[in-house]
Amino acid sequence: MTNKTFTLDEYDKKLLYELDKDSSINLSKLAKIIGRSKQFTLFRLKRFEEEGVITSYNAIVDMAKLGFFTFRIYIKFQQMTNEELNILVDYLKSKENIWTIAVLHGKWDLAFFIGTNKIDDVHKIWDDFLSKYKKNVESYNFTLYSPIYNFNRTFFLDKQKEITTRVYGESRHEDIDDTDWEIIKTYAPNVRQSILELSRKLQLSPETIRNRINDLEKRQIICGYKIGKTIGGADFEIELIVKDLNELLEIVEDIKTKFKDIVNNTSYFSYSTYHLLQYIPD
User: Fold this and answer.
1) Looking at domain 63-148+228-277, which of 3.30.1330.60, 3.40.50.20, 3.30.420.40, 3.30.70.920 is its CATH number?
2) How far apart are CA 278 and CA 229, in angstroms?
3) H/E element, 77
4) Torsion angle, alpha carbons of 247, 252, 257, 260, to 10
5) What is the structure's pLDDT at 2?
6) Strand blocks (E) in 96-244
7) So what's the pLDDT on residue 273?
8) pLDDT (tens digit, 9 = 90+) per residue, 159-172?
9) 3 state DSSP class of 213
10) SS3 state of residue 157
11) What is the pTM of this model?
């Protein structure tokens, strides 16, 4: 993504607001909501993609319902050069159960997330990691996180805001067959591809795909759609999007003041670079 500042007009803001509520919304409906033509709307979407403002259109899949656990590991390094860090990242990318790798600033230097339906996989990955990099690890935090409350971004608009809440990660197990699983893997990374395109990729009829997706939504296995993002040791973690450090500190102080009886200490860090970001396993 480019680092330049992108100026948003009122139509840009409306587009991003609506897409963050439901990134699968069809073009005609999206154009009607913002009050412009389909051609205008499509042009703006393409511009967002080309400028790196929008990097993906994802389904939020509740992997807990499919029997998967998600662990987050946060690491503070010592005696680690940039070249060594790049080698470490490549090593982590080779592990099929690692879904996300990110470079951080602040309390931690690196995070990687493990998604698996077998706890033994976590031990194997971590033991192998320590066998190679224990001397470089100053400290780490390791956690299973659940549930997750995901909210749409409302700061795009000054008024008429609607808050969309998606809760996932703490649900009873749901059974799916191989066809459902193939649909999830193909559909979830890009929910704006057409049913006909999915039909060609999966060799299934459009009606079958449409019915299967509707069923996955009904069972809350697919629990939302968003555009394209707790730490161990913490009882509660929130992710914030802020304009600058001052805004972050103001929010933290406000939380500490309002909940001083239960908030004993806080820490914060920022995400710098994602080297890997997946929403479902390979």
Assistant:
1) 3.30.70.920
2) 10
3) strand 69-77
4) 180
5) 47
6) 98-106, 110-116, 137-144, 148-151, 165-168, 222-227
7) 59
8) 666 666 666 666 67
9) helix
10) coil
11) 0.58
